[in-house]
Here is the input.
Amino acid sequence: MRNLLPILTVLGGILVLWYLSVAPMNIRVALDQAERAGADIVPEGSVERRAVPAWRLMADNRDHVRAGYQLDRPRLPTPAQVGQELWKTTGEMALNGRAWSKRSLIYHAWITLHSTLWGFALGTAVGILGAVAIVYSRVADMSLMPWAIISQTIPIVALAPMIIVVSSQLGVEGRGLPKAIISAYLCFFPVLVGMVKGLRAPETSQLDLLKTYDANGWQSFFKLRLPASLPFLFTSLKVGVAAALVGTIVGELPTGAISGLGARILIGDQFGTPLAIWSALFAAAILAGLLVTLLDLVQRLALGRMGARA
Amino acid sequence: MSAVISAENLSLTFQTNDGPVHALKDVDLTIDKGDFVSFIGPSGCGKTTFLRCIAGLETPTAGTLSVNGMAPDEARRKRAYGYVFQSAGLYPWRTIGGNIRLPLEIMGYAKSDMVDRVQHVLKLVELDGFEKKFPWQLSGGMQQRASIARALAFDADILLMDEPFGALDEIVRDHLNEQLLKLWAKTGKTVAFVTHSIPEAVYLSTKIVVMSPRPGRISDVIDSTLPRERPLDLRESPEFLALSHRVREGLRAGHSYD
Here is the structure.
């Protein structure tokens, strides 16, 4: 728990900065609302105010700065507002037995998680198999690797609709599979790169040693290369699972999906409800945090059994 | 005594971008059963390359080499030798016992047999009780002893050692040299030992092969006159010093051009 203090310090710093930013970010909205309600604002009229910097508006209309912290549709909601919205759409709904309602973030997070896990599984499998091919075959090394790198330079936002269209042409029902493919597309790369490095980690003398035992290819893979690659694999998996989640959310954005965290973000944007966007964003961050923590736990268990220093 | 390893006109040339490198040139050598042969020489003299040729890890470009009457590669397939590298190279994810089991698993020994063999070789290198420890929990000298135990675990008559104590300090090295001699007496294996320490070579060997570089070749083969029983203080005897002197002369002759 020695780490707790620095973590809390950074968190506190972020919160302070956040609260300080809310006032200038929301001042214009707050002044517009106050003016409509009949208050005297300097200068008059929202168009005139556009030319005035935020700090000036705050200085000239001190009484209305506070209002920026209590808006219904703030440009930048306060952490407390986001927390309330998160609780309203998760815990409170769960307590009322409406966890699976379409308005509940638990439901949307589950939809996203589902695709993420499929994408993660698919991406990890492709990554590991690709790495094995690259390490064992010179042809694969020279042909696969450049394509893997090129694949990551194509913006996924451009590719996602194509994957949806193609999969629906092929008669695939629903968005689950195409979303998983999009997510796997982002997730396979870190796994591939990490595994190539991991499988090549054994030193020449370790490979020579196996040769002196006349070990066959399977033995040298399972007794040396694979265990040597595990620390690399776990690091890549943690990057990969986060990428898979991002992939799924991006896959939900341009595809007209109506459920999933990505869809919530898009809908929140279209209906002008930043609170919905922010709470979906935080739900995604919490989900990613949970997934990475879970993998970290598995890593500690696995590497601990393999004699890693505590 | 029958020849276990014999080389005739053995040459190995590496083709590099800077032209051919003659790692070994016209090497003739016979190693008898039960011999302890040291290879000594400056770096680039081909001593390690020669050891790797015996192990079938390098292929000579000319001449003949036989190990146990077979081609080296065939001998490797028959698991004729145990090889000890300069770095202990223990797998960090396996315990000491697990590391020693590695060759046994690969060679398909029975489970019960493995348990006995691990205990036996751990006793040989005086590491009993360390079976369940991980490599990082052991000192460098202990790790190297574990790697020797690993090479002894299966029934190979030949032990090839490539500067096994090169990275250890003098005190540990003296101790391990003494232990290695005892082990050699107990097991009766044929040992080929690469080193660049003159006292180590003289103290351990029944035969000292002095090599020189560019091209890698043998400049002197010295049959040791020392008794088989060798306490550490033998190293201050006139006989020992005379042998050391001859080795040093051999090394100097190989370096006459610089």
About this structure: Residues 92-155 of chain B form one domain. The longest strand of chain B covers residues 3-16. The longest helix of chain B spans residues 170-187. The beta strands of chain B are 3-16, 19-32, 36-40, 62-67, 81-84, 158-162, 190-195, 207-212, 217-223.
